[in-house]
Amino acid sequence: MVTSRDVELLGANTETVRLVGHEARTTVVLDNTVKGKLTATLRAASERALPDRVFLNLENVRSVNDAAVLNVYINAPEGEDPARHPECKAGSIALFGVRKASLTEGEHAGNGLTFVLEISTIMDRLHLSGALGADQLKVRLVPRNPVSEAAQISIGRISVFREGH
């Protein structure tokens, strides 16, 4: 069983992300101390010593429309279609239920939904390629279909957590 002290915030973005059109981007700034712990477990990984697991959280996702599906990419190459880089895809999220969770008079009090994607494999790949040395991750949110301004899709915070063993 994992205790609360086994989970640490690795980093987070600093602004609400609004999604309109074909894509939204943000940067997650990484904490060097926590990143050092993650890197140490990646270096020491073996059959008996598993590395930390890493999770990307999309918090307080709100919208007036339940119909969007978003693909989430980590460090996809600039200027290129991220769909051509499946190794950078953290996963997909469907915003089913987000409209109701965004209503201030509902049981969620307007806080929206939170989605969690495991990105351990991506972080391991970044470590092996030497790209984990950077102090940030670039996150791209790409809807399957363009999003209109009327959908009012926003993500309150994008954060990354490490979970130790």
Give the helix level as a range of percent. 10-25%
Q: Quickly give the structural class.
A: alpha+beta
Total E-strand runs: 9
Q: How much of the residues is beta strand, in percent?
A: 35-45%
- Overall morphology: globular
Mean pLDDT: 92
Could you tell me the radius of gyration in angstroms?
16 Å
The largest sheet is: 9 strands, antiparallel
Tally of individual helices: 3
Poorly predicted regions: none
Q: N- to C-terminal separation? A: 9 Å
Helix-strand string: EEEHEEEHEHEE
Provide a brief overview of the structure.
The protein is of the alpha+beta class and 165 residues long.
List keywords for this structure.
9-stranded antiparallel sheet, 165 residues, alpha+beta
Protein model, in words:
The protein contains 3 helices and 9 strands. The chain is α+β, with helices and mostly antiparallel strands and 165 residues long. Strands 1, 2, 3, 4, 5, 6, 7, 8 and 9 form a 9-stranded antiparallel β-sheet that branches. The longest helix is centred in the first third of the chain and has 12 residues. It is globular. The model has no long low-confidence stretch (mean pLDDT 92).
